[in-house]
Specification:
This protein has a four-stranded mixed beta sheet. It has helices at 26-33, 49-72, 79-89, 118-129, 134-176, 178-182, 187-206, 213-226, 231-240, 242-248, 250-256, 259-281, 286-294, 302-313, 328-338, 343-362, 366-387, 397-400, 403-431, 441-445, 447-467, 479-495, 513-526, 539-542; strands at 102-107, 110-113, 500-507, 530-533, 551-556, 564-568. β3 (500-507), α23 and β4 form a beta-alpha-beta unit. With 571 residues, it is mainly α. It folds into two domains: 32-467, no CATH class; 479-568, no CATH class. It starts with 25 loop residues before the first helix and ends with a strand.
Length: 571
Amino acid sequence: MRMLAGADGTRETAPVEALPTAVPDERVVTTDVTAVDDDGTGRGPRSDRWLRVLCHLAAELPLVVFGAVESARGWRPLYDNADLAYRSFQVFSSHSPLVGHQMAVSAGSHAVFGPGPLQSWILAVPVRVDPAQGALWGGVAAAVVAAALAIEAIWAVGGWRGGAATAGCVLVFALVRPEVALDVVWNVWFALLFLVTTFCTALAVVTGRLRWWPVTVLAASVVVQCQAAFAPPAVLLCLLAPLPALVAGRRRLARDRFGWLVAGLGTGVVVWAAPVLQEVTTRPGNLTLLVRAAQSGPTIGTSAALRTLGGATRVLPAWVRPLPTGGGLAQFFGVVAMTSGPEWWGLAVLSILVAVTAVSWRTGRRTLAALSFLTLLAAIGGVVTVASIPRAQFLVLGYLGAVLALIGIAVWVTFAWAAAEVVVAGLRRLRGDGVVETASPWVDRARWPAAALLLGLSAWLIATGMAQMDGTAPTLSGWAAVRATDAASAAAARVAPTGAFGLQVEGASSTEPLAVETGVAYQLATRGFDPRPTTAIGYPTFGRPPVGGPTVVVVLSGPGRTVHAHIRSGS
């Protein structure tokens, strides 16, 4: 694709500043001096401001629409979302969490949690203001900010074409993975949205805009603390993004005086202080337990990971199909299909990205080189992520593998742009052209088709999401469980004793008692009660039920029927 390309002879958008020295190389100078639709401040010309607003509107409006519809339908946090919401509720208390969400793994007898509480900090104020739905609208607000930062970062690099391409990629990702937009609270989807921000701000950093690096540090930290499995791509993008800019931009480095570095390191210290404090004050610390859990058994391995990369980057990528759902057997075969791509193509993708990076850099196409470099880092990180998944948890690849959709999109954008550069260079050589004009009429006219395409993708995403609104994606368990949770919470509150008590939910399988139990426990806890779910998975978050203490039993007799709650005395 050429959406990110400049309009000068090199099709690049490197730092916008005139060099005070002599002109050694015409191609490099046009790269440094000329930026498409950029006046040097990151603001495009006045005629492009409408398109800038439209890029944000197209990419972010679906998130707001979905959040509003779910709120009107009575959304409540259940399952993992209840755990996330409760930890956010605890932030402004004496039990403020130092770690992240509870994970579905353990290290011996120890529960394992996400690396850090950053998501809980982000949602803390919304959840305190509105315990019932604060996690929802707080998550939507965070997702909108993540998308906005991504668009602004690439707009600073590539002007309107960069902003439009980024908005389009965000919409394509949400179209193939609507779950991400429908349940922005869940830590996995929350992390993926901020991985987009990490990639886009890292591209701004690579192209010499080093002041974006603190934002990259923050976004990457959100990714890692929400989902440890996504650490490889996020960490690689964050730590290595400044290196090319440092190598190529000594004048810029001298001018910036390392302020970006101090701000970035300071941001890292702040957001990682709580996990480090927990690690050094607890034996064993949570970070140690995470490492132990990751080393507890054989992993999927590099070969399967390369096949997964091959499947995600082939002509008809695996991620265009929905995530595997249904029963255990259906999920198994769905996940197996994700690892059935050609391994040789996975290796070829990595090799081609290396070649594109090297050739683009040598020929002065610095922005293409930067994009290819970051895509290579993300692809390597994705391979490491998949390869490190324990075989015993093979099915989690169903949702963790969604990171390959982002990587696949980045790979094909890079390949398309590189191919376009080859074609254009070949045509120029045939015609004997020298340096071309800085703007072509067809480029100017492309604004309107780009705007129409973005509006079409946005409308398509809204229609797709609304069609899935009745499913389990918005709530992790279905609206029947949401309605049962509200009724069960009201019934339990009428009989709940003071002090700690056990909480047990029984009833029809269609309402998923475990989902209702977590939702009821959260609602009661935010009302000042001390519920302790009797299901073991709830112990690390809410605490163990008191031995010999009372238990509130909630009976779900079926949809549309009265929910009954009573107290069962301890033995």
